[in-house]
Amino acid sequence: AQEAFSCVRTVIAFASEDHEYEKYEDKIDLHYDLNVKQLYAQGFYYMLISTFLINTVVQALLLYVGMVLMQRGQLSSEVLLAFMLYQFKLQNEVMNLFNSYTSLIKSSGAGDKVFELLDREVPEPGTGHANVNTDSGGESNGGNAIDNNHNATSAGSQLDIHIREVDFTYPTRPDQRILRNLDMSIPAGKTVALVGRSGCGKSTIMGLLQRFYDPCAGSIVMNEKNLKDINLKTLR
């Protein structure tokens, strides 16, 4: 909901109000159903366990056993009263311990997501991945327009770009293919316009050229050098 409100212009531009509303409604309904189940469980616990068993049955059993012992002369009324008071205080602390355990379980569920983010391994082509070249101390390519010394382009240098049989799907939508067998060449010094309907892959091509993602198949070559072999910081 917060994301939809912050990007409300985009939602309206794509006439997605009903879609976003249905997504939010589904989440709210799920949250409501879970809360109702939790309230039923809590009601059953407090009615049967807490009220009936602990506060009624246990207390009645203590009184009965205490009366039997008093009749036999094995227990005085003062000791019985003190024991019941101590037992009541101990019972309250045990109940608080159970409630704390419930809160701990809820917190651990939220903590799992935090630790999952902290422990995640950055996938390629992220700069945190071990296989991605981001070292500025690489060797130069002897006058090439792109080298590994953070000299992205020298004065007057130009780039030949070749996209060879590239297939691509976004990691979050693996079933929706964006590019299929794309072949394209951009000669040095030329200007190329990418024209097409929304969602056909224009921005995706720019993202691949900047190596925000790697192709699922095929390769992208700049001046006969694969994008994966070029220093990522230099490229960008």
Write the layout of secondary structure elements.
Blueprint (H helix, E strand, L loop, with lengths): L1 H5 L1 H6 L3 H55 L5 H42 L42 E9 L7 E10 L15 H8 L7 E6 L2 E2 L5 H4 L1
Antiparallel strand pairs: 1-2, 1-3, 3-4
Helix pairs in contact: 3-4
Describe this entry's structure for a reader.
By secondary structure, the protein is an alpha+beta fold. The protein is built from 6 helices and 4 strands. Strands 2-1-3-4 form a 4-stranded antiparallel β-sheet, covered by helices on one side. Helix 3 packs antiparallel against helix 4 (77-118). The longest helix has 55 residues, at 17-71. The chain is elongated and about 110 Å long. It starts with a helix and ends with a helix.
Name some characteristics of this structure.
6 helices, alpha+beta, about 50% helix, 4-stranded antiparallel beta sheet, about 240 residues
Please summarize what this structure is.
This protein is of the alpha+beta class and 236 residues long. It has helices at residues 2-6, 8-13, 17-71, 77-118, 202-209, 232-235, and strands spanning 161-169, 177-186, 217-222, 225-226.
Rg calc: 34 Å
Shape field:
elongated
The assigned structural class equals: alpha+beta
Nearest-integer average pLDDT:
80
Instruction: Give the % helix.
Output: 40-55%
Terminal CA distance reads 34 Å
Order of strands across the biggest sheet?
2-1-3-4
Fraction of residues in β-strands:
5-15%
Question: How many β-strands, per DSSP?
Answer: 4
Tally of DSSP helical segments:
6
Order of helices and strands: HHHHEEHEEH
Tell me about the largest β-sheet.
4 strands, antiparallel
Low-confidence stretches: 137-144, 149-156
